[in-house]
Write a structure and sequence with these properties.
seven-stranded antiparallel β-sheet, alpha+beta, single chain, Protein Transport Mog1p, Chain A, 219 residues
Length: 219
């Protein structure tokens, strides 16, 4: 009996020792903390000094805002002339049109061959100079620019009511432009009749008579 008890105690002691060893091994093999996740590509590029896709530039401008506007003066506000104006008397056959924001006067001339437009505008100073303005008008009917000597050689000059008129007549591409430039009060006034060639040519005498009615208003 005593021998059996001794064997039982020996077996129990052995089990306790093995149990302690297992717990020590389990504690020793506990999992480590997980490794940090990899940085997303967008954040990695930001930290490297580059901005992620779709992020506005640092200066607050988009790429479209940093590009030059096409067409040179496209979108540029052009001030009209101030100060005292001019007056005129238009032929009865001309139809008055709304002036809009840039015009001092506006008329439509209609016939069976189409419709022509007469515009009256005024801008401060010489607005680029006589030669530049005449070549601009030539371009509006498809004519190439000319040298300063050539383009001014075609100018017809006359005076009326103390005003000096510079009259030109350009035709091209089936259209015609008859225009006059008048310096007055430190401004440049532009009288331009443009439309189908035959229609505008038929109005040239009426346009010339119209210019002779242009004058400074009475005080």
């Amino acid at each position: 009996m005593l021998i059996r008890r001794s064997v039982c105690f020996a077996l129990l002691a052995l089990l306790l020792v093995n149990g302690c060893k297992d717990r020590q091994i389990t504690a020793y093999r506990a999992l480590k903390d997980p490794a940090p996740a990899a940085m997303p590509p967008a954040m990695a590029s930001t930290n490297a000094g580059a901005l992620p896709e779709g992020h506005p530039p640092i200066d607050g401008r988009s790429s479209s805002q940093t590009q030059p506007a096409p067409g040179g003066m496209a979108g540029t506000a052009v001030p009209t002339a101030g100060g005292s104006g001019l007056t005129w008397t238009a032929p009865a056959a001309w139809t008055v049109k709304p002036n809009g924001s840039m015009r001092k006067g506006s008329f439509a001339i209609k016939s069976d061959s189409g419709e022509a437009d007469l515009s009256i505008t005024a801008f401060p100073g010489a607005t680029g100079g006589l030669e530049a303005n005449l070549n601009r008008w030539r371009g509006q009917v498809g004519l190439p620019p000319q040298s300063p000597t050539e383009v001014t050689a075609a100018v017809e000059k006359f005076s009326a009511h103390g005003l000096d008129f510079m009259l030109v007549d350009y035709a091209g591409g089936g259209n015609r432009l008859i225009g006059a430039i008048v310096p007055f009060g430190g401004n440049s006034w532009f009288f331009k009749l443009m439309g189908p060639d035959a229609l505008v040519a038929g109005q040239k005498d009426a346009f010339r008579e119209f210019l002779h009615t242009v004058k400074e208003p009475a005080p």
